[in-house]
Amino acid sequence: MNTHNVTPDLMKVAIASAREAGGILQDWVSHFSVSEKGPQDLVTDADLASQKAIQKYLQSRFPDHHYLGEEGLSQTEGKSPFRWIIDPLDGTSNYVHQFPFYAVSIGLEYEGKPYLGVIYDPNRDEMFTGIVGEGAYCNDVEMKLSQATPLSESLVVASLPRCADRTDPAVARFLNILPLAQHVQRTGSAALNLAYVAANRLDGFWSTSLKPWDQSAGVAILLAAGGVVTKMDSSPFDVDCPDLLACSNPTLQSELSEQLCLVP
């Protein structure tokens, strides 16, 4: 199948559904109710409403595609080569505390590989989009990446597991990189971290605690921008594996991988 025949519709629908979901999040932001799904894993009515809107929008146009979503969505019937991977609210804790760093994230795989990504930040009205092999954009402006940024000059970001204590290897990796990088941050939104690497606002990002919906769209966008995405040991990236190293350039990827792998 030639994906170019359907790509314009795929992207158009993904952007429209992300924008609708972002509007729902903003409508709910000041009056949602919060429930506990697990330790510090907050679920809001807004999260559920956002996913429902995305699911309805996409499935009405692509009913034969496969779907995976954070809030219990799993549709795998049939033999479609397409799988949508949806995070209706990436950065839930930020959202709950009204810290404006969260986003809607919609990724699309083709034959099991990252193909298309849309990440919408409703606070800044920024729409990050990308199709692997065809470029990546922020509000229709093409994003360009640096090609040789050493770790000592880099702004990098990490995801740490919730409730991680000082014995957690993820904490040890964070502390190992802290004196080596120009700056190390933790933001609470993996999707925006990946989008920001693609936009050359961050240089690198790593995590061992992500789910497929946290990383699918952002990985597609970063690959479309020409970035490098692997596991921390430089082996091939797998969206179903919580092991990610994403960098703006191969120089930084190699240096970060070496340092991160010093921690078992």
- Quick one: biggest sheet? 8 strands, mixed
CATH-wise, what's the superfamily of the largest domain?
A: Fructose-1,6-Bisphosphatase, subunit A, domain 1
Estimated share of beta-strand residues: 25-35%
CATH class of the largest domain: Alpha Beta
Count of spatially separate domains: 2
Summed over residues and divided by their number, the pLDDT gives a mean of 91
Task: Provide the low-confidence segments as ranges.
Answer: none
Rounded radius of gyration (Å): 18 Å
Amount of helix: 25-40%
Number of strands: 15
Structural class: alpha+beta
CATH topology of the largest domain, by name, is Fructose-1,6-Bisphosphatase, Chain A, domain 1
Strand order of the largest sheet: 4-3-5-6-7-8-9-10
Q: How far apart are the first and last residues' alpha carbons, in Å?
A: 42 Å
Secondary-structure element series: HEEHEEEHEEEEEEHEHEHEEH
* Shape summary: globular
Structural account:
The chain has 264 residues and is of the alpha+beta class. The chain has two domains: 140 residues, Fructose-1,6-Bisphosphatase, subunit A, domain 1 (Fructose-1,6-Bisphosphatase, Chain A, domain 1), CATH 3.30.540; 110 residues, D-Maltodextrin-Binding Protein, domain 2. Helix content is 33%, strand content 27%. It has seven helices and 15 strands. Strands 4-3-5-6-7-8-9-10 form an eight-stranded mixed β-sheet, sandwiched between helices. Strands 12-11-13-15-14 form a five-stranded mixed β-sheet, with helices on both faces. The protein has a two-stranded antiparallel sheet with strand order 1-2. Helix 1 runs antiparallel to helix 2 and helix 5 packs parallel to helix 6. The longest helix is centred in the first third of the chain and has 22 residues. It is globular. The chain starts with 6 loop residues before the first helix and ends with a helix. 45% of the residues are buried. The model has no long low-confidence stretch (mean pLDDT 91).
